[in-house]
Every structure is written in C-alpha cells, then in structure tokens.
Amino acid sequence: MASNERLRKESGLPDYPRTETSPRPISFYVILGAVLFAFIRTFSLLSPILLSFLLVLLISLAVNPVISRMRAWTGGRKIPTGLVVAGLTAVMVLAGWSLFGPMKDSVIKISVAVPDYWERLQKPLIKIEQQAVIFEEKLQVEVSTEIAREDRSTEKSEIIPKIPPQALHLEESNSFRSYLNGMFKDLFGSFTAVAFNGAHILVVLVTVFFGVVFMLMNPRPVFGAMLSLLPEEHHPKALIILQRIGKFIPAWAGATALGMLTIGFLVFLLMWPIFGFMDALVLGLIAGVLEAVPFMGPILSALPALLLALGQGGMTPLWVLLIFAAVQALENNMILPFIMAQGMKLHPLAVIFSVLLCVAAFGVLGVLIAAPLVAIVRIVHDELYRKRFLPHVTNEDLDHLAGIALHETRPDER
After folding, report:
1. In terms of residue numbers, what domain contains 183?
2. Is 0.70 surpassed by the pTM of this model?
3. Which of 20, 115, 288, 315 has the lowest CB atom count within 10 Å?
4. Residue 121 carries which DSSP code?
C-alpha cells in the first residue's frame, strides 16, 4: 500500500476516495473463464483485429514524440498529424515512383534468370534419370532371363510378363520431374491462396494507416479506455508501465529506422560495381526494408541478389554470397551495437521465439511486433513481478546465480 501511495504522488494521479473492496463471487470467475475460453476459440477470427490494434498502438507511440513537439508550435494535434502523414505519404509515393522502373527491370531480369537456371539444373537431373532408366532396363532383362532359366529347369510353362522398355522409360523420366514440380507447387501455394493472403495483408495495412491517423489526432480516449479496465488501485502501476513503454518504443523505432537506412545504403554501395546503379538501388531498398524483420530479413534480402548473380554466371554468385555474409557480420558486431543503446538490447533467443509466436498467431505481419513485444513483456515483468517478489535482487545477482547453476565462475569470482 505504501508503494502505491508513493507511485500515486510521483505520477500526479488524483486522490480517489477509498472504497472497501468485497470478495468477488464465484460467478465472476465463472464468467471470466467463459470469456477467456470464447476468446481462445475465436482467436483465429480476432487475430487480424488484435494485430491491427497492436500495430496502431506501436506506430502511434513511435511517432507521438514528433507530434508532441510540433503540438507546442501549433497548439493542437490535428495539424502536426496532417503534416507528418502527408510527409510520409509523399516520401513513399516519390520513392515508389522513382523505383518503379528499376524494380520492373530487376523483376524482369530475375524472371528471365530463374527459368534459365532451372533449365541448367534440369540437365544433370535428366542425365541421371536416363542412366537410371538404362540401368533399370538392364536389370529387368537380367531378372527376366534368370526367371526364364529357372522355369525351363523346373519345366514350368508360366508366362513371365515383361514391361515394355518404352513405357518404363516414359514412366521413369517423368517421375522425378513430376515430383519436383509438385513440390514447388506446394511450396509456393496456389494463386488463389496467394491472392487471398495479399488481400488480407492489404486490408490490415489500410486499417492500420487510418487507425494511426485517428490515434495521433486524439489518443487520450483510447488510453483512458485502457485504464478504465483496471481497478483504481492499479492505476499508478499501469501509468508507470505505459510511460516506460512510451519511452522505449520511439527509441527502438528510431534505432530500427537508422539500421534500415545503414544496411540499405551499404548493400547499395557494395552491389553497385557488380550489377550497376539501378539494380543495386533496388537491392539496397529490399535489404533496407527487410532489415525490419529480425534474423530472417538479411537471409531473405540475399535471395534476389543471388538470383541476379546466377543469371550472370561465373563467380558472381560466390562474390554476392560473400558480400552478404560480410554485411551480416558487420551488422551484428559493429552497426547494431553502435546504433542500439544498452537498454534496448534484446536477447536473440527471446526474439526468435517471439517471431515464431507472432507469426503463428498473426501471420506474416506478426514479425513487425515480435521485437517490441519482447521489450513490453520485460517491462511488465519488471514492474509487476520483479519489484514485488524480487525487490533486492539485481541483474548482477541473477547473472551470478546463473553462473552457479551452469557450474561457471568468472575470473573475478574465483
């Protein structure tokens, strides 16, 4: 109670009149359990709505410091929101318009390179198939001859059916390629499924765009509604958590944007001598955008460059692979540690599991909230659990206990 009173004074919350809280009836917990069960059962239908709401909150918190500073000049939030939205829209439209031509040319080159590479890949496969067919024909003749000799020796007159070599050749030559074609079809999915997923993503993005606009214009009712779901004695803690999240999200978004610009520009400079200015510009844009995807982004950004390199042939694919490996090493050891502050560093294992969880729950767009979700969970854990049950345990104490559990000791602890 004393800590709640201190938090109430520090946060400037009004002094609500105290009310006596009575024990909740058993019906309350029954209804709560029924609501949770219904939410779990209908999560597949509610996940796009929940994802859109989370993206709106995260983007609004990331842009809110800019709106707050401009609000001091204009006296309101509508004009700064309109200016920020118009500026971002203009930048995206101009970038898309300027990159449409190079992107179209690069897509055409990739689409031409892929069939050529697939044709070159099929040639050794066809040779292997033909050798297998010849070996199968020889084996069939030998087996038929051996069976015929055994029948003559036992004076049996059974007729041994023989498979025509032409039918065997046709069947064997088509089996492996048919399997590969079926595998690629299953991998990429049907056109209907791709179109449905694309439409779903488009609807979510449009919803998030307008949601962010209205949220930035007047965010207080939304946060007030969130606080109204909590009992008043928990308002000080909820306010502290929201303030910490509100400080972390803009810093994380700024560091992520700076990392995207750095990686995109670096890939552009390194790909320029290999593919030329236009293709390097497109590859840099792809690498910069996919930098927002934790861990998988750099791997996915290397695929278009490798496809273009395969079209050129020679040692180009090897050089491109080495360049992307060097960029990845430089990013992990120099760029990210320099850009990310100490308080924003997240454990890679936690981010990986968060990515898997968010993708399973929300689909492809779930990767956008994976990293901030880890930070939010950590903030909530610090405020609600650690300060109550581990008030005197520091990070150094936890690290020391972990070392003991792993039978490890640092040199200064010996």
Report:
1. 52-229
2. no
3. 20
4. H
